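Try this one yourself first.
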């Protein structure tokens, strides 16, 4: 009877977790793709749009497109592309039109699966059902996690975390039963996770943390043995880490030390760690883009952040025997954040919400176990005190409910590129990328005049922002300011001679004006830089035919 009762409670928890997750994310079904990486991953990706075929599957396993090795992510997009075509055919919609709702819904389902698996993993390891449920609920509804779920391009977060949870679940079984089947599942899920996102290179370290608490395998087993049993995982992680660094370096997505000196990286890393902790407890003004401050961080902010981190670290070390979950949760946070903590600069952001998707689990564990222990210690009550348990339940429900409101609002900003980047501009300063992307979104909707304003704002904050300068030329052309567009394209070519898009557009305008020799010169320059540029090749052929009088 007790076993049946336990199962019913688990089913109730599953139902509640499903309910609160969909209460926040149901709205994404009619959201659009954004013009920030969704185009790179899906809209302009011919392999993804072609669906699942031998040639596209092969591409998924050999490419480092988008500067990452993530074949399972590409394959998941291909499956959705095929599904979207099928849905469009059934519904009688335009053939070939990408159904963004399918991609969004997949992210939500994966996030929900991660939430449920997190509950199962923690409850099996610790034996604390309701504390584990609270951690899972925080994971499900926290506003910092919205970006990982509502952004189609962040499929890698939710997909890789699915395999992270399955790997950990297999490890719990292996640690308790020592069977080979569990170990084989462990390795398989880990490899699938690595094929989804390199972030999983930190997973073996988190398993060592669980060996200390709550599995209590150390010191029953030596540290050497615990490390050796994870040796295959460390080897795979090392290979993927090296390949990722090479891919990012070759594609120019890793910030150089000239642009981001070591001192700047360290300062930003310290502040970034404190940023995620602060936003965990006060998740306001979250956005998709936080401009990197370079060397402009206030000294007080760096020192204050360092004091916060040192204080938590000291408390964790002092209490590591009495409250082992604190050191485990804190090290989880630090270790899983290590690949993306700013010391290795990726892109031009200072911090990024989706980087906290896995790391915040460590903070949630500290909260879920720490608050009950703290209150019971202050009030000197036992763990089975009914009134205390009711009070903790009420606190937990109110906390989750309070987080659901800003999370729901945050999801709404992802409706389309206009809402997303308008919000980014509102809550940040000097955000050139947000101005540029908002300008592009407005230009796509036909509002070239307002788009020009935002492109000029982007260039005001970042004068060498070539893409913004190019987009400004396009907007001026749409407004009928042909000479302004020509001046803009020439300015870009002078600063960045290899910028082929500006040369191609300039050549097209010159051809329209009858300046065929100059146009041909631009098209030929494009082909010297990029011999495979079919647009420039066609434009060149047309210009030559027109010059010869055959067109």
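Now uncover the answer:
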């Amino acid at each position: 009877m007790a076993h049946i009762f336990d199962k019913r409670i688990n089913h109730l928890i599953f139902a509640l977790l499903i309910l609160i997750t969909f209460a926040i994310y149901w709205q994404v079904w009619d959201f659009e793709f954004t013009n920030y990486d969704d185009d790179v991953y899906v809209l302009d990706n011919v392999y993804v749009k072609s669906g699942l075929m031998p040639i596209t599957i092969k591409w998924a396993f050999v490419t480092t497109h988008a500067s990452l090795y993530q074949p399972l992510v590409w394959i998941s997009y291909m499956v959705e592309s095929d599904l979207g075509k099928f849905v469009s055919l059934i519904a009688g919609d335009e053939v070939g039109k990408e159904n963004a709702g399918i991609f969004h819904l997949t992210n939500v389902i994966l996030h929900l699966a991660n939430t449920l698996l997190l509950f199962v993993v923690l409850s099996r390891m610790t034996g604390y059902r309701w504390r584990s449920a609270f951690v899972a609920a925080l994971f499900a509804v926290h506003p910092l996690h919205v970006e990982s779920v509502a952004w189609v391009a962040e499929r890698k977060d939710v997909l890789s975390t699915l395999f992270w949870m399955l790997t950990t679940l297999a490890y719990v079984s292996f640690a308790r039963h020592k069977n080979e089947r569990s170990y084989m599942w462990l390795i398989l899920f880990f490899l699938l996770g690595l094929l989804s996102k390199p972030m999983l290179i930190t997973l073996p370290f988190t398993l060592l943390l669980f060996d200390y608490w709550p599995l209590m395998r150390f010191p029953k087993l030596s540290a050497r043995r615990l490390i050796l049993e994870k040796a295959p995982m460390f080897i795979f992680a090392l290979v993927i880490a090296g390949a990722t660094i090479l891919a990012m370096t070759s594609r120019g997505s890793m910030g150089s030390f000239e642009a981001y000196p070591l001192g700047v990286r360290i300062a930003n890393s310290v502040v970034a760690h404190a940023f995620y902790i602060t936003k965990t407890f006060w998740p306001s003004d979250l956005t998709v883009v936080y401009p990197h401050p370079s060397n402009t961080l206030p000294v007080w902010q760096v020192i204050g952040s360092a004091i916060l981190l040192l204080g938590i670290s000291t408390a964790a070390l002092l209490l590591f025997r009495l409250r082992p979950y604190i050191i485990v949760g804190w090290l989880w946070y630090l270790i899983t954040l290590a690949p993306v903590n700013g010391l290795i600069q990726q892109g031009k952001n200072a911090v990024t919400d989706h980087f906290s998707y896995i790391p915040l689990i460590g903070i949630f564990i500290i909260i879920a176990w720490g608050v009950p222990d703290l209150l019971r210690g202050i009030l000197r009550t036992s763990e089975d005190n009914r009134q205390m348990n009711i009070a903790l339940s009420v606190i937990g429900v109110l906390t989750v409910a309070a987080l659901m409101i800003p999370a729901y609002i945050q999801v709404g900003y992802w409706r389309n590129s206009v809402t997303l980047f308008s919000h980014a501009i509102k809550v940040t300063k000097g955000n050139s990328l947000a101005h540029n992307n908002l300008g592009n979104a407005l230009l796509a909707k036909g509002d070239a005049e307002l788009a020009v304003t935002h492109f000029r704002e982007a260039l005001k904050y970042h004068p060498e922002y070539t893409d913004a300068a190019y987009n400004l030329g396009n907007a001026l052309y749409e407004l009928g300011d042909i000479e302004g567009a020509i001046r803009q394209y020439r300015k870009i070519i002078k600063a960045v001679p290899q910028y082929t898009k500006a040369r191609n557009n300039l050549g097209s305008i010159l051809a329209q004006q009858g300046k065929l020799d100059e146009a041909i010169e631009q098209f030929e320059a494009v082909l010297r830089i990029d011999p495979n540029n079919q647009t420039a090749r066609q434009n060149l052929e047309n210009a030559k035919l027109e010059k010869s009088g055959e067109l």
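Discussion: Residues 2-43+102-414 form one domain. The mean pLDDT is 93.
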